[in-house]
Amino acid sequence: MHSMTAALAAHTSTPPDPATEEGGRVTDIFKAVWNWAADTLPGGNTTVVGLVFVVAMLANSKKGGTKTNWKKADQAVVGAVGGVLKALWGGVVGVLKAGRFVLRFYGGKELHGEPKSDAGFLRVGRRSTQPAGLPAVQLGSIALAPPKVSLIKPKRRQPSPRARQAAQWIEDYQGRAAAALDRAVRTALWCVRAGRRVRGWYQTAARFVRAWYAVAAPVVASIAHVVRMWHCWPYAARGLARLALTATVLGLMVPAWRAWTIVLLVLALGAVVFAGHKWKPKAPGDDATYGPKIWTILREDLKLPEDESRENWLHLPEKLGADDARIIVRLPWTFRGSQMEKDNVTALINSRLPGEWVGRFSFTSEHATAVYTHKPPPKPPAPTPEPPEAVDIWDPKVQEILAALGPDEFYLGQDTFDRPVIQKMSDEQAHWALSVGSGGGKSAFLQFLAIQMLMKRGTIVPIDPKMVSLTPLIGIPGVHSYINPEAPQDMRAALLWIAEVVKARNYEKKNRIRTAFEPLYIFMEESNELADILKEEYTASKKSSDSAGDPIWRDGVAKTLRLGREVNVHIIAVFQDFKDTQFGNVSLVPLFPFKIMGSYSERQWKRIIGTNIPMPTIQKKAGRMVLVLNTGDVTRIQTPYAPWDPEKTKDENQQAAYKRLTAYYKELRATHGFSTEGLYSAPPEPSPEEAPALLRQASRDTGPQGPNTGSEGGLSDETAGHGVTQTGGMTGNVTPQRDRLWLIPGQAGAEAAQDPLAAPALLTIAEIAHELTTRGYAIKANTISQHKRRRESTGFPVGIMVDGAEKFTLAQLLAFYEGRGLEKQEESGEEAEQNDAV
Q1: Using alpha carbons only, what angle is made at residue 487 by residues 774 and 471, rounded to the nearest 5 degrees?
Q2: DSSP string, 698-710
Q3: How far apart (Å, rounded) are the C-alpha atoms in residues 442 and 447?
Q4: Which residue, 98, 100, 117, 107, is CA-closest to 238?
Q5: Weakest-pLDDT range from 220-229, 341-350, 407-416, 676-685
Q6: Within the chain, how many helices (H) and strands (E) appear?
Q7: HEC secondary structure over 756-822
C-alpha cells in the first residue's frame, strides 16, 4: 500500500508556487524567451543584451547615414536606451491605433477622410454637397401663372414593355454593377425572343426570365439604393452592418458555426427581399430625370459659369404631367430679353421636355425669370348649327308653308337655322339634278315634290326603270307613269313626246298664240339605269348608218333641258354619275345648274359637283341633303318626309302610310284639278305589262290557288298546255284537273289581245325579241339583227318599211326560226351564230 502511494506521488508534479504566478502570462512568455536564448544562442544572455544595444544604436543613427561615434560610449548607451524606449512606444502607439481603428470600424464611422454627411450615431444624415446660394425651392415662389392643362407627349414605346417596366427600377437607381446586370438581362431576353419561334421551350424560358426579373429588379434596386446611401446611414446602423459582416466571416470559417451561419444568412436574405418589396424606393421624379440633361445646354445658352449650381437657376416639377406643373428659369442680369433669346429658351424647353409649354418672361422683379406652364388647348370651335332632325309633311307648319307658295316656288326643307328653304323652279334653276345614295331619303323627297306639283295643277310624267320610288302616283289623274323596264320603247316614246310638246309650245310662244302654259314635270329616276336600258334597245334596232350614241339624249332630253324652261317644262333627274359616254356623248352637267346631293361619297361629289366647290362634311342621314348652285353656294337642309318607305311595304304602319299618301294625292288632284291644254296630244300609251315567264308557266295542279310549282313527276302534257286547242276548247283526253288551271292576265301572249280580224301587228326587232323570249325562245335582239344583216345567206324574211324603219310580224319571224330547227331551244346568241356558220 505504501509502495503504490509512493509510485503515484513520483509521477505527480509539484503544485505551482503562488509567488511565481504574480507576473501572469506575460512573465511566463518573457521567461520562456529568456531561457530559450540562454540555452540556444552562443554567449547566452550576454549576446541578447548586446544585440539589443546594437539595434538601439542603429535606430539612434541619423537619417543621413552618419556613422555612430563609438568613441562616445556614454552617448551610445543613452541612444540605445532611447531607441529601446522609442521602439516600445511605437509598439504602444501601434496597439493604440489598431484599437482606434477597431473602435471606428465597429462604431460606424468613416475609416478615412472627412465625413460625407452629417449623420449621427442614431440620426440619418444628408450629403454635405449642397452648394450655397439661392435655394431651389425659392424659385417656385416666383411663378404667378396658374396651371392650365396637361398636354404631355406620350413616352416612346419600348420593345419589351413588361421587361422594361421591371428594369425601370434598376435604370433609375443603378450603379455600374446594376447597369451591367440590366444589360445582361436585356441581352438574355433578346436572345430568348429571337429564338422563341424555333422551339417551344424558348417561350417558357422567356416567361421565366421575365418573372424572375420582375421579382428581382425591385429588390436589387432597393439594395442598390440603400447601399448608395451608405454615408447617410446612422453610425449605429453602419457599425451593426460591419459587426454582422465580421460575424458572418467568422461563422463561415469555423466549422462548428458554419451551419447556423448559413441558416441565419437565408433568413436574413428573406428579410431583405421582404423589406425590398415593402419599402422599395420611390421612382425619381422628372426633375431628377430631365434636370441634369437640360441644365448642361441651358447653362451654355445663358452663359453661366460651369461651377454654378442647377438648383439656383432651374426648377423642374417632380411631375411634368401635373396640371399645375411649372418650369422656372432664373435669368442672368445680362439676359437682354430679345425675341430671339426668348425663342431660344422656349425652343429648348419644348424640344427636350415632354409636353408643349408657353413662357412668361418677367424682368421687373428682383430676379428676372421665365415661368413656363402647359400650353392651353385650342378653344373648340363653336358648334356648327344643324338642320332639325326631321320635318314631317303632315306638320301644320309645313302645310301652311305649302299653302303660301307661289306658282313656281317649291319648299325643299329647313336649313341649319331651322328656316324654310324655298327654291324657284324657273329660269336657270328650271331643271334639277339629284344624286342621293342609298338610305338618303330620295324616294320620300320625290314624293314630297309630287305633292307640290299636284298643288300647281301640273301634269307629271314619272320614268322609273326600277319601279319603286314613284309607285304611289300610279292611277292619279294627270300622271303618266312609265315604270316598266321590259318596255324601254315606251320610255323612249315618252321622252320624244315631251320634246315634241316643248317644240310646239315654243312655236306658240314665239308666234304669240299662247304665252302661258300649265306645268309639265318629268321625273327621270335612276337616269344611269335608264340610259343603259335605252342604249340596249337602240343597239338592237339601229342601222349601220346610225350614230353609235343613242340620239334620244340629244334629240329628246337635251332639247327639253335647253328649251323647256321657257314654256314651263321641267325635268327632275336622279343620277349616280354624269359620264357623257353613257348619255350619247351629250354633256348634261351644264344643263343642270341646280343640284341636290344626299348621302353622297367623296367620289360622287368630285364626279358630279367637281373640285371647284369645297365638299361639306358627309352626313349619312335620311333627308339630310345639300343644295349646290353653280355659283358655289352650298346650303345644308333637312327635307320633309312622308312616312312611307317603299322598302318596308310589309309593315302594317307602312301600308297605312301608303294608303294615306295615295289618298292625299287624289285629294290634291280633286281639289286643284289639272288641264291637258298645252299637251296637244295624249302621251304615248304604255304597253300592256305581261307577267314574267316564271309566272306564266306556273302550275296550279294542286288547287285553284295552289303553289306555283310543278307536280312531283314534272309537268304533264295537260298542265303544260298540250291539251288546249287554238280556240281555247279542250280535247277529250283532258282531265277535270286541267279545268282548274287559272290563267293569269297576259298569259295568252300578245296575239290573244288582238282582234282576230285585224291585220297582224308590225313590231321592231327589239319588240319581237322580247316576245320570243316570253314564248321560251332564247334569241336576243342582237342575234336577230345579225341574221338580218346577212339576209342573203340566211334567208331572213323581208319586212315592211314604216317611217324609215323595217318592221316585221311576229308570225313571220317565228316561222323563220322554227324552220331552222330552233323551236324552244335555250341557246345563246353565240350558239345561234355558230349554227348559222354551220
Answers
A1: 115
A2: ---TT-TT--S--
A3: 9
A4: 107
A5: 220-229
A6: 26, 17
A7: CCCCCCCECHHHHHHHHHHCCCCCCHHHHHHHHHCHHHHCCCCCEEECCEEEECHHHHHHHHHHCCC
Q: Which three cell numbers stand for residue 761?
A: 301587228
With b for 16 or more beta-carbon neighbours within 10 A and e for fewer, the 134-159 pattern comes to eebeebeebbeeeeeeeebeeeeeee
The pLDDT mean for the chain works out to: 75
Fill in the DSSP letter of residue 471: G
The string of pLDDT tens digits covering residues 233-280 is: 888 888 888 888 888 888 888 888 888 888 888 888 888 777 767 766
Query: What single-letter DSSP state applies at residue 650?
Result: T
Selection from 124, 122, 104 nearest residue 113 by Cα: 104
**CB environment 310-328: b (16+ within 10 A), e (fewer):** bbbbbbbbeebeeeebbbb
Contact (Cβ atoms closer than 8 angstroms) between residue 572 and residue 473: no
C-alpha 720/C-alpha 706 separation (Å) is 16
- The secondary structure of 16-55 as a DSSP string is PPGGGGTTHHHHHHHHHHHHHHHHHSTTTHHHHHHHHHHH
Are 387 and 415 in contact by the 8 Å Cβ rule? The answer is yes
Grid look-up 298542265 returns 719
Query: Comparing C-alpha atoms, which of 104, 120, 103 is closest to residue 235?
Result: 120
Q: What is the DSSP letter of 126?
A: -
- Give the pLDDT confidence score for residue 827 in this predicted structure: 41
Is the separation of the CB atoms in 808 and 762 below 8 Å? Answer: yes
- Helix extents (H) in 542-601: 559-563
Dump pLDDT digits (tens) for 314-372: 999 988 888 889 999 999 988 888 889 899 999 999 998 998 999 999 888 778 899 99
The pLDDT assigned to 507 comes to 93
pLDDT of residue 786: 77
Question: The C-alpha cell of 210 is what?
Answer: 421575365
- What is the distance in angstroms between the CA of the first residue and the CA of the last residue of the chain? 160
How far apart (Å, rounded) are the C-alpha atoms in residues 473 and 703?
35
Cell 436574413 appears where?
Answer: 268
By DSSP bridging, strand 520-524 and strand 459-463 are parallel
- Whole-number Å distance between alpha carbons of 399 and 390: 15
* CA separation for the pair 56, 73 (Å, rounded): 13
Burial group, residue 752, by CB count within 10 angstroms (0-12, 13-18, 19+)? exposed
Quickly tell me which residue has 445646354 as its cell: 297
Closest CA to 213 of 171, 162, 158, 279: 162
654/657 Cα distance (integer angstroms)? 5
Question: Most confidently modeled of 44-48, 134-138, 303-307?
Answer: 303-307
Strands 800-802 and 805-807: antiparallel
Residues 374-393, mean pLDDT to the nearest whole number: 85
Closest CA to 432 of 516, 527, 549, 500: 527
Q: Which residue has the higher pLDDT, 632 or 749?
A: 632
pLDDT digits (tens, 9 = 90+) for 589-620: 888 889 999 888 888 888 888 888 888 888 88
The alpha-helical segments, DSSP class H, found in 44-115 are: 45-59, 73-107
What single letter denotes the amino acid at residue 296? T
pTM of the predicted model as reported, rounded to 2 decimal places: 0.49
> What are 17-56's pLDDT values in tens digits?
544 444 456 567 767 777 776 676 666 666 666 666 665 5
Residues 572, 493: Cα–Cα separation, whole Å: 18
pLDDT at 64: 46
Amino acid code (one letter) for 313? W
Specify the 3-state DSSP secondary structure of 358. strand
∠ at Cα 405 (401, 411), nearest 5°? Answer: 65
